[in-house]
Amino acid sequence: MSDNGERADENARPHTTTVALSRPLDPEVDAGTEIVLKVKVSCPHGCDLRGRAVEVVASDGAVVGTSRLAEFADHDNETTEFAFTAPQEVGEYSWTVVFPKGQAEDLEHDEGLLPITVRTLAHDTSLAVWGVPSPIVIDHPFRIQVGATCSAGCDLTAREIEIVDENGVCIAHAKLGATPWDGTRALYWTEVDLVAPAKNGPTTRSIVFAPTELRLPHGGASARFGFETVKPPQYSVAVEVVQQDSGTPVEDAQVRLGVYFAHSDSNGVARVAMPEGTYSLDVLKTGFETPSRVLDVREDVTVKVEVVVVPAEHPDAYWLFDPAKRI
Amino acid sequence: MSSSPEGPNPVSRRRFLKTTVANGTGIAAAAAAGLYPREAEAAEIKWDRTADVVVVGAGVSGLACACAALDAGASVIMIEENFDIGGRGIMSGGSIQLGGGHSLQKKYGTKDSADMIFADWTRHDHPASRYSDRDIVRKFADENAATFEFLLAHGVQFTGREEAGGGASTNSGRTYQTVEWHVPSQLVAPHRGRNGSGLVRRLEESARKAGAQILLKHSMTKIIREKPLSGRVLGVTARTMGKEINVRAKKGVYVGTGGNCGNVNFRRTFDPRLTEEYQQACAPYARQSGDAEVCAMAIGASLWATALQTSESGAAITKTAHIGCQWGYGQLVIETDSPVFHLARATGLTVANWQDVIMVNQTGKRFWNELDGSYNFIAAAMAYSGDPDKLNGGGPIWAVFDSDAVVRERWNPKPPNVDPLYFASGATLKELAANINNPYQKRPMPGAALQETVERYNSFVTSGVDSDFKKPKPMYKIEKPPFYAAWATPILHDSLTGLRVNTDQQVIDIFGKVIPGLYTGGESMGGLAQHGLGRDLVSGRLAGIHAGKSSPSST
Questions:
Q1: Which residues of B touch A284 (CB under 8 A)?
Q2: pLDDT tens column, B410-460
Q3: Are residues B295 and B312 in the same domain?
Q4: What are the extents of the domains in chain A?
């Protein structure tokens, strides 16, 4: 058969087409969110099919997404990324990516089909809790901040969160505000007023989020936070933090007396109100060190703590051999 | 004055032999021409370039070798896979551990001697010296002072400052720092006091003046030996621009490619835990490819003193200093105007206080006291993390912190300070875990596990007691959003041992015999675990002297 005959024969028969995804589809997506696709169509004859449409067809025949082949390289035609919206209900769904039968440059191409399946999930939610003070005097009020977010960034304004105690009893609830927390996409937050229990010691509380009345299905979330509850203070302890040799006040050192915290001010002084007792006193600040000591508190007391400057590490410490450091 | 290396040869060895054989002179003629019979067997090779000494790797030891060989009158071709010279030396702080009573020590009145160096590096009571090859140490000690004077003779300048450290006894006054190279555009890590640039640039300058050819972007693929496991080393094959060339070494080949930490398969010879997630210092500029070790072992070379690599001393494996970037080693920061910043992609966040973060493994669990940086910390980071598909290696380690820590540390957690592949953020801890998208995090970090870890840690801050890992006085809760996870996986540095050599730096084979014509040094050699520049310089220089002075057929 002549070349012309082959060409005529080739033109007479429609070219088959193959449809594929340029990269794997995420098998699970949040309900009601976008499913992003990039589709590749090829013809065994290497035809340039740019401009031809690709459709995503649901089981009821509805076209839910469409794009056009925009790139042609190495005998493959590709769309750019395009998206269609996943169903709003949780479940498994199937669609067919269709390259419709049609004519291009006097050549007829057969229809190409690719079935795809995706499971839609309830949106995951999660919580953050911050600004929890500790210690807190028994029966005293305090305030915390609580935020909730959704994996798909849904608006959670006015959704309710609950605070529950160790027994699961709700002790407070609040509605999330309308403005996401600074630096986040969609952490909707609120402040919650609470009261410390009447018993001193470590206390744990939980936050429960069970979103309802949202347009899309959402899962719930929980988180825990803790604090120390202490007896009412009796005495004032002032800790003056200074450098050992110079006596220079050290600002912003963390002073710990057992479960009590304070930070030194510009005069190097940290003040803590606390009940009678024996406490471990530690002063912590980067670049300084001092040994831990024990402090008996039986009255108002002022104690001076001398801290020693830790020499800056040699810039090439790792590069020099120092057995004391590495062993 | 050295002789000149030869460019692409107009008359190949094969053609030469054909001519001589046709003239009826045969092997006798070859022998007369300095070719031994076994060499003649290898004469089928087409040599593209020829020199007396071929040096593979233009790092510290290679440059020292080249300069010493040139001093001995040899011609030198250097082969370097990078786009520029220097290897890890150009990223180094330039602290050189050389003593033995050299001129600068005398100037400072520092008491030192070769015997003191020998004593330091053969101590039985320290793991870094316990396993030393004492023959190697003896020669190293004896050649310290001469090597320092060699540097001065080749124009290397020192700050004059004497630094502490330098020996296994932590004796003072055996570490001297070179002056940083004065041309900013010829630095790889600008602004960071990488004074090793002054060492390698001065040696490069000296070598070029003496006639060395430096073939950049040439990667050694093979060492050519007369027979696979016997005979003399004749040269090397190198790949450049997609083609291979053969470079003839009439006197010797020196392979000094900077150790093997960057070669995952090879480094696991010493420690199977060192799987792919562990990065190495000085990458992405220098690869630590293990090419010298691999190519030499392919022709019969032996490893030596392997205990040195796993003695858990020195900087073989280290805690990162900068987090949120792929390579966060020690004092090394690749700034945005570095010629390799496009490869490094981020400068990293330098951690001032490890109290500001917790460290978790790929399953979102703490594993050790974050304030520790010892090998106990490293071992915990490399412990089995529970992934049945990854039994070796500990997987990625992430430093997790909150927005309060960002304020305390004065970090700006955005590119170019962090690399999105090695850094993540989230409004909650669960969202943070879901947002980790790293090539070495093979399984998603379970968000619930991370949340549980942080809740538990926060309770330790409240109580003041870390009942899991005894972190002294945990200072800060991780609670204020947004939350961050920054790559903090241990990073590898020193190759503390390598190929077996004799005291002339000749490579020894698996049968205990010298491989004629093959030399190595620096971090490609075994027997002495001293960090960095001193070992590199002495061994490179010794190899250059021996190879440069040898006759073409001598062993």
A1: 355, 473, 475
A2: 999 999 999 999 999 999 999 999 999 999 999 999 999 999 999 999 999
A3: yes
A4: 3-121, 125-229, 235-309
